[in-house]
Design brief:
This protein is α+β, with helices and mostly antiparallel strands. Helices cover about 35% and strands about 20% of the residues.
């Protein structure tokens, strides 16, 4: 899609916000804003507070670049409000955003579509944790269902750790899930429009790819190319695209998965507004595809020029 900076009009870059991922979003938003300014786009950085809709309505903006992570920015609520305001925006629409932010519904949809995702259970407040361990086996991952950036996640290697893991997750969400831990290489597949970017393989000395490993640790290692055969790479990219489409996602995003000892991939989660920091994976994959950061931001913003969906809540292309 060929555009000029003037075609975008006045662009609001939403970042920061009120979620648990605020600090990461501040970094993503600044990077996006700086890239747009370098490309002469009329961009305006807005730290999204409780009055964000009033600010947008009063600002005479033409479109919105969403650099918010987590609840209130990535879960469909903002997307629905922008639809009501008639403001085009980047990334997935209401449906894809809401489903991707909900790890439980994500897994249920993937299972219904015949896609591989680790066995799991919902942890109720008075669940018999020993029975859960007996059913799923060890190790396990305990997660809040509606958080990102590994916030509130614990790896459980002994049954005695389950209660503390549940409490850590429940501190962030009333819905807590536990899933079988896949031990093996971890990959992420970035999607940009119709293009699947090169896969990135992750390695960390941490117990798992936690918040610190993602955003601050210098010990995390990233491999792109990921060391796969051309056939494996294409197969995994196809799986990621199917997983993304099944959730009604579109525009750009990321699908994370792990492989077991037999090389079987297991889908973990989908992200509809991934990080755009110096540690982030989508910019890394784009760079290996020959797309520099400023061009990546431009192409994501181009997605907001597509016509608005004709069906409320449909995925934005």
């Amino acid at each position: 899609m060929m555009t000029t900076a003037a075609d975008f009009g006045k662009v609001a870059v939403l970042f920061g916000g009120l979620s648990a991922e605020r600090e990461v979003s501040l970094k993503s938003g600044k990077a996006v804003y700086d890239a747009l300014i370098r490309r002469s786009v009329d961009a305006h950085a807005i730290d999204a507070g409780k009055d964000v809709l009033q600010v947008l309505a009063a600002g005479n903006f033409s479109r919105v670049f969403i650099a918010l992570h987590g609840r209130g920015g990535e879960d469909g609520t903002l997307q629905g409000a922008l639809e009501t305001l008639g403001l085009p925006y980047t990334g997935s629409g209401v449906l894809g955003s809401a489903l991707s932010m909900d790890k439980l519904r994500t897994k249920l949809l993937w299972l219904s579509a015949g896609l591989p995702t680790p066995a799991f259970a919902v942890l109720k407040p008075h669940a018999k944790l020993d029975k859960v361990v007996e059913k799923l086996g060890l190790p396990l991952m305990v997660k809040p269902a509606h958080e990102g950036s590994s916030i509130g996640i614990s790896k459980v290697t002994e049954a005695a750790q389950m209660a503390a893991a549940w409490q850590a997750a429940a501190a962030h969400d009333s819905c807590v899930i536990v899933e079988r831990c896949v031990e093996g290489p971890e990959y992420t597949a970035a999607l940009l429009g119709s293009q699947a970017l090169p896969l990135v393989r992750l390695e960390t000395p941490h117990e798992f790819y936690d918040y610190a490993a993602k955003y601050s640790a210098d010990s995390t290692r990233y491999f792109c190319p990921a060391g796969l055969s051309a056939e494996q790479e294409q197969s995994f990219q196809t799986l990621a695209r199917r997983a993304f489409d099944t959730l009604g996602c579109s525009g750009w995003g990321r699908v994370d998965f792990m492989c077991d000892a037999q090389g079987q991939p297991w889908l973990i989660e989908s992200n509809t507004a991934p990080g755009m920091t110096d540690h982030s994976l989508v910019p890394m994959a784009a760079r290996h595809a020959g797309i520099e950061f400023d061009d990546l931001v431009w192409r994501i913003l181009e997605g907001s020029l597509a016509p608005s969906p004709t069906v409320a809540g449909a995925a934005r292309v």
